[in-house]
Amino acid sequence: MADFLEIEDVSRHFRNIRAVDHVSLTVRKGEFYSLLGPSGCGKTTLLRMLAGFERPDTGRIRLDGRDITDLPPHKRTVNTIFQNYALLPHLTVRQNIAFGLQVQKKMPRKEIDEAVDRMLSLVQLESQADKKPGLLSGGQKQRVAVGRALILQPQVLLLDEPLAALDLKLRQKMLMELDLIHDQVGITFIYVTHDQGEAMSLSDRIAVMNNGRIEQVGKPAEIYEAPRSSFVAAFIGDTNFFEGQVLELVGDEYSRLNISGFADLVCFNDKKISAGNPVFLSIRPEKFHIGRNRPELSPKHNIVRGRVEDIIYLGGMTKYWVQAEGHKISITRQHSRFFLDEEPIRWNDDVWVWWHADDGFMLERYSEADENLVSLPPDASGTAETAQ
Predict the structure, then answer these.
(1) What per-residue confidence (pLDDT) applies to 44?
(2) Fold equal for 3-225 and 230-384
(3) Statement: 230-384 belongs to CATH 2.40.50.100
(4) What is the pLDDT of residues 166-216, one digit of tens each?
(5) In terms of pLDDT, which residue wins out, 335 or 131?
(6) Each residue's pLDDT tens digit, 245-276
(7) DSSP collapsed to 3 states, the chain
(8) Considering only the top CATH level, what class is 3-225?
């Protein structure tokens, strides 16, 4: 599929702050594309440049082959949904949705009414059409904002953390509705969020941002399973970090690592990091296995001995924290089945922890910020929890 939206070497500075720092990315037509990152990473500034509310200091923005870098917002076929929805409080739902057609396109009244009826049906607000925004729930206001933006038939819909003000259950419901609406209308969505769960569940692709730059672009599974940097590994989900060094290459795909306190470990080396380089070994909690008895394993498995320090039972899973040779390992065990008469692993039990070489990934250490990933509070030493 050809690139539809092109952002080329775009930067935006505010005094001495590089809000967006030489960002380049492409979005395909009809794609649900998320800009994900912590507060202050530049994602909203980038969205505002796409909308025309900010002008880039460097670079160009092209939409469907047309350079829109210098166009004002009203001359772009781009609409934005803001965090506060920006509804007109004195107008009804129907009037809010019709407003853009009346002001921008000056369509005949009959055509406007027909278009509004179709949009009310799409966003499931037919029964609320004559109410004003003050009488609506948060989810209903969000759907009004979506309807008002889509009725103008933009080529791209920009969504700036539109679910941030909603409670958890309503947010989950609206995620499904947004996904359904996107599938029905088929236009390009650019979605800004700091919530990894939202981005992972909605997106065709995700661009993870940090300090004004793109750390990684990929499908949700690629971002989670094969992060390219320690920042991405820590920000997307939970992970365990172990500081070490590459000892030697083993064949074409694996390396042996020296991790303090552990015997030589073997890890898949997809990044082809050379022997002698310092690295982080990152392993997701669900990739570990835990048991009292030492299992028989293949040469591509790693195994360490430890003692259980803490356990949390969460119904569908149990979380363990195991102290092993000075490292605190976070382990998640999913319950595909659970027998009440099975002797459970308890606090202070001696256990074996093992994982396959393919289930860890090596990440180069390249900045002072990376050092902070292993300088964590005592209750989470060795793990990096989900960033919000």
Answers:
(1) 94
(2) no
(3) yes
(4) 777 778 888 888 888 899 888 999 999 999 989 999 999 999 999 999 999
(5) 131
(6) 999 988 888 999 999 888 789 999 888 888 88
(7) CCEEEEEEEEEEEECCEEEEEEEEEEEECCCEEEEECCCCCCHHHHHHHHHCCCCCCEEEEEECCEECCCCCHHHCCEEEECCCCCCCCCCCHHHHHHHHHHHHHCCCHHHHHHHHHHHHHHCCCHHHCCCCHHHCCHHHHHHHHHHHHHCCCCCEEEEECCCCCCCHHHHHHHHHHHHHHHHHHCCEEEEEECCHHHHHHHCCEEEEEECCEEEEEECHHHHHHCCCCHHHHHHCCCEEEEEEEEEEEECCCEEEEEECCCCCEEEECCCCCCCCCEEEEEECHHHCEEECCCCCCCCCEEEEEEEEEEEEECCCEEEEEEEECCEEEEEEEECCCCCCCCCCCCCCCEEEEEEEHHHEEEEECCCHHHHHHHCCCHHHCCEECCCC
(8) alpha beta
Which residue bears the tokens 């500075």? 13
Mention every residue, 6+ apart, whose C-beta is less than 8 A from residue 309. Answer: 321, 322, 323, 328, 347, 348
Q: Where are the domains of the chain?
A: 3-225, 230-384
Residue 269, CB half-sphere, CA atoms under 13 Å: how many?
22
* CB-count burial class (<10 Å; 0-12, 13-18, 19+) for 282: buried
